[in-house]
């Protein structure tokens, strides 16, 4: 038998063995029973993926029970020419929560919130979070403060003081992009130094963990993107990863839901958690981008919807992504 044949046989055996191990790990993860329940208050779309439609599935794959309330229910996300649907009012939110309260089923280990387009609705969310944290102080609140991106708002600017006065003091974990970080700290975020100074301001307001998901333009290149994670009084990390082709709605919602999972799994190890989230996100976005590029003759917007279901294995078992570089930043504060 030639050396080349032996080499090919070994590689084939090694690959099959790795796949078997991987599949075994996926099955084990799917069979795990977790005593975890999330209340998720976000937007919802009938077609495609955004808000709860993007967040609930990854959480459920990891064995988290999810009670979800849709702040809005739309036919599709705003990237399409037409959007139809309804908005939940603060009174309707209050009524839904009252039902949970009266039936004594308002028991949650985590709260996750995202898009909210109404000031009074956001205030009611704060009331609910306060009540749940009073009931169980160990309940973790992960807030994605959705306000805008790339220098512009796509929610009412009047939400800002509500986030500052009511939401941020309650949040255990905050996941702003650079624009939202700047708005919440009244600073301009262009460089890494700008980002880290603003993150410290949020820590001083009481937020334990801050993950800046995107948009620090001065720290990025045409080939690479960066995000940052910081724990109050602890370590700060820089994550560098490849810039993939395309922009897709719902990625931030998937990111936040997976962050809930991995912060819980790693007992708050932010470096390990964010790296695992980015490993899954890289595969999800790459698969979505590849599919979209192949559908040039189809409805371009519809073809750019996240390939979430098709990426379920990568959501459950984040691939080892050597292209995601994690660096600890010296804390000079």
From TrEMBL:
GO biological process: pyridoxal 5'-phosphate salvage
Pathways per UniProt: Cofactor metabolism; pyridoxal 5'-phosphate salvage; pyridoxamine 5'-phosphate from pyridoxamine: step 1/1; Cofactor metabolism; pyridoxal 5'-phosphate salvage; pyridoxal 5'-phosphate from pyridoxal: step 1/1; Cofactor metabolism; pyridoxal 5'-phosphate salvage; pyridoxine 5'-phosphate from pyridoxine: step 1/1
Alphabetical list of Pfam families matching this protein: Phos_pyr_kin
Catalytic reaction equation(s): pyridoxamine + ATP = pyridoxamine 5'-phosphate + ADP + H(+); pyridoxal + ATP = pyridoxal 5'-phosphate + ADP + H(+); pyridoxine + ATP = pyridoxine 5'-phosphate + ADP + H(+)
A Gene Ontology cellular-component term: cytosol
CDD domains listed in its UniProt record: pyridoxal_pyridoxamine_kinase
Keywords: ATP-binding, Kinase, Nucleotide-binding, Transferase
Single GO MF annotation: pyridoxal kinase activity
Keyword flag Transferase: yes
EC nos: 2.7.1.35
Residue span(s) of domain Pyridoxamine kinase/Phosphomethylpyrimidine kinase: 124-287
Top-level enzyme category: transferase
Top-rank taxon, per record: Eukaryota
Protein family membership: Belongs to the pyridoxine kinase family.
Protein name (Swiss-Prot/TrEMBL): Pyridoxal kinase
Species in which this protein is naturally found: Caenorhabditis nigoni
């Amino acid at each position: 038998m030639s050396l080349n044949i032996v080499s090919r046989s070994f590689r084939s055996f090694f690959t099959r063995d790795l796949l078997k191990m991987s599949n075994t790990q996926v099955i084990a993860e799917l069979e795990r029973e977790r005593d975890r329940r999330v209340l998720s208050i976000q937007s919802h779309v009938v077609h495609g993926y955004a808000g709860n439609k993007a967040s609930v599935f990854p959480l459920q794959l990891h064995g988290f029970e999810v009670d979800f309330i849709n702040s809005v229910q739309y036919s599709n996300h705003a990237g399409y020419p037409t959007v139809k649907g309804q908005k939940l009012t603060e009174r309707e939110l209050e009524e839904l929560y009252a039902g949970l309260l009266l039936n004594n089923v308002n028991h949650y280990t985590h709260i996750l919130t995202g898009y909210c387009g109404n000031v009074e609705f956001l205030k009611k969310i704060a009331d609910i979070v306060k009540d749940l944290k009073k009931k169980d102080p160990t309940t973790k609140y992960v807030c994605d403060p959705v306000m805008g991106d790339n220098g512009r708002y796509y929610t009412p600017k009047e939400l800002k003081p509500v986030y500052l006065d009511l939401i941020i003091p309650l949040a255990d974990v905050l996941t702003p992009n650079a624009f939202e970080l700047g708005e919440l700290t009244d600073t301009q975020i262009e460089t890494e130094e700008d980002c880290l100074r603003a993150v410290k301001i949020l820590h001083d307001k009481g937020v334990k963990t801050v993950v800046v998901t995107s948009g620090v333009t001065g720290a990025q290149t045409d080939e690479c993107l960066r995000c940052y994670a910081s724990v109050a009084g602890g370590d700060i990390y820089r994550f560098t990863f490849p810039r993939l082709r395309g922009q897709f709605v719902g990625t931030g919602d998937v990111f936040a839901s997976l962050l809930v999972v991995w912060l819980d799994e790693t007992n708050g190890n932010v470096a390990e958690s964010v790296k695992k989230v980015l490993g899954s996100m890289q595969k999800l976005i790459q698969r979505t981008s590849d599919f979209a590029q192949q559908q040039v003759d189809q409805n371009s917007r519809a073809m750019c919807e996240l390939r979430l279901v098709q990426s379920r294995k990568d959501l459950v078992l984040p691939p080892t992504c050597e292209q995601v570089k994690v660096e600890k930043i010296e804390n000079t504060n």
